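[job 0412] stage=fold_complex status=start
inputs:
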Amino acid sequence: MFFHWLEKNPFFFAAAISIVISFAGLIEIVPNFAKAGKPLVDLKPRTVLELAGKNVYMKDNCMSCHSQMIRPFKSETDRYGDYSLSGEYAYDRPFLWGSKRTGPDLHRIGNYRSTDWHENHMFAPADIVPGSIMPAYKHQFTNLADIETAYAEAVTVKNAFHTPYGPEFKRTRAAWDAHRPKVLADAKAIADDMKNKDVKEAVANGQVPEIVALIAYLNSLK
Amino acid sequence: MQSNAALEYDYSLSKKFTFLTILFGFLGMLVGTIIAAQMAFPELNYLLGEYGTFSRLRPIHTNTVVFGFTVSGIFATWYYIGQRVLKVSMAESKFLMFIGNLMFWLYFVGALLATISLLFGVSSSKEYAQYEWPFDLVVVVVWVLWGVSVMGLIGIRREKALYISVWYYLACFLGIAMLYLFNNMAIPTYFATEGLGNILHSVSMYSGTNDALVQWWYGHNAVAFGFTVPIVGMIYYFLPKESGQAIYSYKLSLLSFWGLMFVYLWAGSHHLLWSTVPDWMQTMGSAFSVVLILPSWGSAINMLLTMKGEWNQLTDNPLIKFMVLASTFYMLSTIEGPIQAIRSVNAIAHFTDWIPGHVHDGVLGWVVFMIMAAIFHMAPRMFRREIYSKKLMEAQFWLQTIAVVLYFTSMWIAGITQGMMWRAVDEYGNLMYSFIDTVTVLHPYYAIRALSGVMYLVGFLMFAYNIYKTMTSGRQLSEEPQFRTPMA
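[job 0412] stage=fold_complex status=done
writing structure:
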């Protein structure tokens, strides 16, 4: 009998397992790579400040409680806005859809929350939303966002995946030094709408607190 | 029946990994209990400043339980079962012992460093694959070393036919290797530029919808090949050994093994129902999830029928009780999963607490129970001592069983309540509840879940204590027990 023979031949046994477990990936996943990676026509990649904010979002693991995936139900589009489209995520590495909504969806939060709201909410969530079980993220007001890493990420995805960043995005430190003022200007625009003195002072001194980058990112979610 | 008398097995590696299983099990469950309590009592978020928030701790809970506790348990049982069913001692090969020890230390240090990295927020944010690239490399090396151990032992075996458990361990090795490699493909940004930024940071090779597909192909099947496949391999060995009964059906084990191998991986896309993944993939995920009941229940029924005519053992051997309860929870969990994978049910269940509820009746009821049963069975043979206390074992069994029931019932209610409230509309078609209404209503269920966590953790400490006392002061045995585990 075939199986008795197979059980005495570990090499072929292992080969058989490998073949049987490969079907699903080959048939179900690979075809999508040709099709669904395409961006929407007018989709723009995130700015360096927004990318740095996305990295803060990842560092504090916001996706353990918040989704970024509005499903096509009336109850969801009423609550969060238009349902999500595949092409909107084309530049998201990694995808941050989440799998649990302990808090609400954030995919279009930029449409209905302001810099000011986020500033207060991240500092003391239950003061803004009574009954909220979200922890405060006060450390984001003092920790500095890593904008250099965010720039490195932009350059990497530009070179490796042709994400449409401009010609000024280059691998060199000189290019980063040239781009840095642009990031600081973006940070200043956010900080101008904020009230926290320490944050304003840090930005005036050419630093970017995590909260500034995070708010830039959240505002870009539309 | 072939006698084992001629061979002295070397249990040193099995012992080492048993210690890690208990250590990581305790840590993982402790963090799990803390974060469960944080959801009921948010003030608990501020015990450790930045490092104590729910969001930082949650991946530590999941990764410690998956890559710490369960994987240690897989290694501990492999180094025990492998020798015995292949009829070869680890001590016969210096090379394999060296590889095993190397792997142990690399794994131990790697797991600790990786856990610390998560505490500092160094994370790729892909669930159950949060480790950044240097830690991924350590995982790969450890896994390859384990593969060498498995293949090496098979290579020098005396028993030519591979017992069912070996099929499962082999599948665990191959499956996790494939999944882990593809899902963690990333480019370190430091090396892709002229040394800009953080050396630990990387960017995923896949984007958006494709990244989601690969991630859930991984996420779902890491459960398959970590929480199901090797655990089934364990019960195929330990239940017949402990009960002295032969496996009920060889054909059923063939059907369920190859069925599981083929079907499981298709079901990953059921994590992405109603998302932007193409419809046909979602449908495939749903359909294969339902088909998956067959091989899952095949194994579980095969185990239950193995006890045919010997059910009296259930009343006087708590170890049999652990294993029978484990296969029963396996059946519950593998019928619940397919139900959640049906589109209309998923529309309510997805994003709610029903999902962690489902995970935990599987993990607490099936995985942890089976691994603890395995260690209870192995300990008297590894240490040549009787189990320290049968009474403690009985008490632990009931405490933890009640804890699991409290956990999943509270989360079922919480999940369905929240899912229904999110979609509730009044007579004019307007949403009835603001989001925060759907959070505050869950407080009692979160409190019950936290309590169940405390109970389960206490049960695990009772287990750890029992094993510790067995090692140090259990009555000594003159020879290795054959079937039923001796206990005082």
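[job 0412] summary: Chain A touches chain B through 90 residues (CB under 8 Å).
[job 0412] exit 0
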